[in-house]
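Protein modeling request. Please complete all fields; requests missing the sequence field cannot be processed.
Requester role: graduate student
Desired output: 3D structure, token encoding
Chains: 1
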Amino acid sequence: MQKTVDKHVNDVMEIIHSKDDLNEIVFSLHSFKELVDYKSVIKNGGDNLEKRKLLIASELKNISSKPLKEYFQSLIRANDMWIFEPGHFGDFEKSFKDLSEDVVLINLVAALEIKEKDLKKLTEDLSKKMEKKVVLDVTVDKTIIGGAIIKKDNFVLDFSLKNKLGQFGSEWKKSVVKSGNVDE
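Delivered output (184 residues):
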């Protein structure tokens, strides 16, 4: 059973690339868990799988996370209802929540909006290098002109054009002062 739970948790982790995705999915899972708990199952169809399937499918509209909604829809279409069993969904939600606490959060400030496919590639590459799931908290800041700033805890890598121009300006000023052509 735990093997199947872990497979579903890993499948959902694969669709997460941003902090917003992670937060939406954690919230959605917690809310959705009440729909598939024991009381709800007894009240809304009991052992009648088709009736429960229709109920779950209709409740997917309340899930705010598009990737999670699509994942659940694919399970329902494949008639893979195992995860929606009351005991299993609770285990899935708990395992997901536990694993999400081990996710590495990296702040990325970019000059331009990052396309979804680029965000996915970047998170996959960083996850491989760090050997942990990486999620990016992306912020767009046009004042950095170009490039990006990457922050993790107290570690900062500044690849912004604004920073490079500032460094260039400082070096140029030092060289002009050193040559004696301008007063400090």
